[in-house]
Amino acid sequence: MLIQLLKIELLSLRNTVKSMKLSNYITSSILFTVSCFFLLGIYMSFYRALSHLETLPFIGGFITIKIISILFLSFFLMLIFSNIITSLSTIFLASDIEFLFSLPVRYETVFLWKFLQTCFYASWSIFLILLPLIIAYNNIKKASLLIYPLILISLIFFFAITSFLGVLINLLLLKFFPSKKLRDAMLVVFIFTGVAICVIFRFLEPERLLYPDKLYQIAQYIMFLETPTVIYLPSWWITAIINSFIAKNYSESIFYFVVLFLVTFFFIYILWLLGKYNFFNLWDRIYCSQTASKKENIATTMQKYIRYPSKAKNTLFSLLWKDIKIFLRDTTQWTQLLFLTALIAVYLFNIYKLPLDNLYLKNLIGYLNIGLCGFVISAVALRLLFPMISLEGKKLWFLRAVPIKTETLIWEKFLFGAVPLVVLSTIISVVSNIFLQTSQSIFILSSVIIMVHTFVIAFFAVCMGTIYPKFDYKNIPAIETSPGGILFMIWSMFYIIFTVALFAGPVYASFIKQLFKKQIEVKNFYIFSSLIFSIISVIIAIFSYKAAKKKLINYEEI
Amino acid sequence: MYNKEIAIQLTGVTKKFNNTVAVNNLNLEVYWGEIFVLLGPNGSGKTTTIKLISGLLKPTSGKIYLNGIDLSLSPLQAKQMIGLIPDTPILYPKLTGYEFLKFVASVYKIKDLKRINVLLEEFELLDDAGKLIESYSYGMKQKLIFCAALLHEPRILIIDEPFMGLDPKTIRYLIELFSKLMKENKTVFVSTHILELAEKFATRVGIINKGVLVSVNTIDELKNKLIGNERLTLLEDVFFKLTQPVSKN
Question: What is the ipTM of this complex?
Fold first, then answer.
């Protein structure tokens, strides 16, 4: 039966490829090429870092093993976290569960099938990232090719264990909190914890391992290196399998492989039992809690305080209020703000830690920060603003049927999404300039450009999301990675790079003027660049707005 | 008139969603060769009853038997007997209609796949069988679900709102199909709120209101039902009378 269920997935994949149009092929090719370059980048960086470590006498080997074990440990935690989130939609809230339960298929078979789906969806991206890391490590160590099948099988067990733990946590969570709202609240807590782990991990500065000379307590450092990273976790077992095999200590490698294998099969057996005796009861409870009358909770209490003003006559205002209410009631959307907070913290921490010791470098980085900041803004706009129209989905027919000007919807989405984006960009631009101690002129220039970028990119994201909607989405990432999403990112990058290049001339002239006390006229240079920048920004906004408006009026298939 | 052998039996079935009682102490016997229609206003517990009978939900209390088989004890054996058509067709969008039916055939271990084409032809889906389900209209999806439910020639057909999104031709075909199944001594359990259609094919009608089964009668019995001091002759009037909100005074 599992094979028949697997066939559905394979047939769906085949049909997706078969039904692809030329534009899909082009987009997929671009995406594939970009991904290959990204993975190549990971390989090269890791290879370089490990090669450097291998040259260090005595401690080089220890550091490498430590880094590998820390990597597997962090992937282990990330995978559990990813499985918790994935299993919620693939197992417990999946749309086909009802259909599968109506068939004469055993509950444990459905559960195992859903477990496999979860494992795949939660692990494939980590597998892709691990691939260049492992290849780089094996190339440095000149390991035999036989290690690859061993690693592959070990990784499958490793992924299965993390999926089991993720599913188990979710099962317990749902057993004690079957109510949807409570579950949402718990999910927010879990995501918050996950984000906190990421931030803490970043603040631990693992890159310091690459510079042992900067750690003054050498003895402590070596002791730290010699201790295995949490020996009872599968992350250490897989590290041991690889390292023992490379060191030709085959018995130890086999020992840890057998441990990994036995634990995996023990967990699969537990999973089978859970599927047989627990799954249907739990699903029934979830269904009941969703159908039951809604009780008051944090979300409904919060939204009570934001009431619709009785005097509001503006339709734009009404639409805005609708979205704010939905946002406050849908606790899953709050997680976006948590991710945003984590993003700001990590970004600013990286800026703070930059080893810059002269004003020229500080100003240079301050100026280049416009580009970096623009990239962050584009990525966030792709996550928050681009999907807005697609998320309206089937409900859009209603908004088109009521007497509201079509363009009002575009403006409303822009206003709703631009606020968090402006807060984000203001914090990033102001705080990073303070951390960098840039000159007053760079401070003002970069802040103004970043602010204009924010508004233009936010508006452009809404318009592109309207021009290229994806109403038949399964999840938000599916909207982001649609051809429209990729096109938005490419155009945004062009716009940002163009701006950075445009102001490079006047900024460079200012530096020369300040540094060598030369008489150079920079004012006109700035005016000219600002004028071009303004024209380009306005053109992007007007053209995308017109195209979006036209598209919104002409939507036929929603 | 009926074969008195019981096809579906519900004894004291109650389903609670936390503190909300969706179905309250339901006692019902549906016989072989019967087209039983469950009527009720929106939110009266029709879909919950359907989900309980098809094993998609577990009763909070009470027992459900299909052909004497306890659904809670032998769900697989019981499900082998039924074909379910839910109110909203949720299908795999990236499969073609034919592939989906092939999958269902494999689940029921049907070796002869000719029946797939027969059903596709009967429901006028043969020309679209090679297209992806995502390109189907609501009505086509509903027809496909009918094909899937009828593929293993179930002895009990359970349908939630059978005529939603279907064209008049298919509705007529379904009514004929129900009669054919009845003649084959099979049972059709239908939930709907369209009174006119129920009147056309139901052998017995159960009226459910706020989770309570308030009446089980044949159409003729219902039409001559004495409610209070009134004798009502229209099914519509009986329905409104039986499902009207109870005054708190």
Answer: 0.79
